């Protein structure tokens, strides 16, 4: 059974204070690892897909990296509008494309 | 592009009634749609996977007779919560895949169901 563990559960940063979120996973044959952002009362918003170890992707202040066991979401100089819950999900090779999500990291960026 | 809508965005109903939630892919044809449930401060839990024109595949522990899923076209899937009870109160989110190869899911905005 696929498992995804995200840490920390909650993170509070000052504006401009860079940090990283962690996503550890176990999966039988990774098809893809996905990062989503979710604002309160809304559906998840796609950020990145990573397919193989060593892959990196960037978007504005966010950078996602992948190893064989975990992924990191690096946030550089965050702003208050980056406050949200960040979800990590994995998709295995034989799963009919279903995603297994972690519980998420609630990020709060104070001005 | 790749927008998914849900209707209604919120619904309040009495215990014992049935509620239907619609999920539409607005600008693409979705080969597969997924239904999730999310309880407060919890992650998304997959309920079922549906493919157009075929029966939905339910996850273990999800009652197929209680959560009826119909995927009548490539742009519309519906979830009907039958004989709803207060414990069914939750945030229901659908998603759709654009292509079977990318694996990427596009999520709807969610439907908040409150059963009194």
- Shape descriptor of chain B reads globular
- Cα separation of the termini of chain B: 37 Å
Q: Specify Rg of chain A, calculated over alpha carbons.
A: 13 Å
Uncertain ranges of chain A: none
- From the N-terminal CA to the C-terminal CA of chain A, the straight-line distance is 41 Å
The oligomeric state is: heterodimer
Radius of gyration of chain B over alpha carbons?
A: 13 Å
What is the strand content of chain B?
over 45%
Number of helices of chain A: 0
What coarse outline of chain A follows from CA principal-axis ratios? Answer: globular
SS-based structural class of chain B? mainly beta
Which stretches of chain B are low in confidence, meaning pLDDT under 50 for 5 or more residues running? none
Tell me about this structure:
The complex is a heterodimer of chains A (111) and B (116). Chain A has strands spanning 3-7, 10-14, 19-26, 30-38, 45-50, 56-59, 62-66, 70-75, 84-92, 100-101, 105-110. Chain A is globular. With 111 residues, chain A is mainly beta. Chain A has no helices and 11 strands. Helices cover 0% and strands 59% of the residues of chain A. In chain B, the strands form 2 sheets. In chain B, strands 2, 4, 5, 6, 9, 10 and 11 form a 7-stranded mixed sheet that branches. Chain B is an all-beta fold and 116 residues long. Chain B starts with a strand and ends with a strand. Helices cover 0% and strands 52% of the residues of chain B. Chain B has strands at residues 4-7, 10-13, 19-25, 32-38, 45-51, 57-58, 67-73, 76-81, 90-97, 105-107, 111-115. Chain B contains no helices and 11 strands. Classes of the chains: A mainly beta (111), B mainly beta (116). At the A-B interface, strand 4, strand 5 and strand 10 of A face strand 5, strand 9 and strand 10 of B.
């Amino acid at each position: 059974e696929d498992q995804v563990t995200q840490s920390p559960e909650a993170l509070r940063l000052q504006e401009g204070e860079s940090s990283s979120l962690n996503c550890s996973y176990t999966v039988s044959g990774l098809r893809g690892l996905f990062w989503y952002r979710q604002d309160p009362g809304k559906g998840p918003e796609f950020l990145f897909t990573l397919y193989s170890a060593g892959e990196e992707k960037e978007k504005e202040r966010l950078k996602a990296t992948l190893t064989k066991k975990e992924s990191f979401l690096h946030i550089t100089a965050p702003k208050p509008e980056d406050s949200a819950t960040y979800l990590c999900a994995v998709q295995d090779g034989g799963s009919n494309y279903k995603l297994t999500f972690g519980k998420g990291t609630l990020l709060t960026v104070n001005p | 592009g790749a927008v998914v809508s849900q209707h209604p965005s919120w619904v309040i109903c009495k215990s014992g009634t049935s509620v239907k939630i619609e999920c539409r892919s607005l600008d693409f044809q979705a080969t597969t749609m997924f239904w999730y449930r999310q309880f407060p401060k919890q992650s998304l839990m997959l309920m079922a996977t549906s493919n157009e024109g075929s029966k939905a595949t339910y996850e273990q522990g999800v009652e197929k007779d209680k959560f009826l899923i119909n995927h009548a076209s490539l742009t519309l899937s519906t979830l009907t919560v039958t004989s709803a009870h207060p414990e069914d109160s939750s945030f229901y989110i659908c998603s759709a895949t654009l292509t079977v190869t990318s694996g990427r899911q596009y999520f709807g905005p969610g439907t908040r169901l409150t059963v009194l």
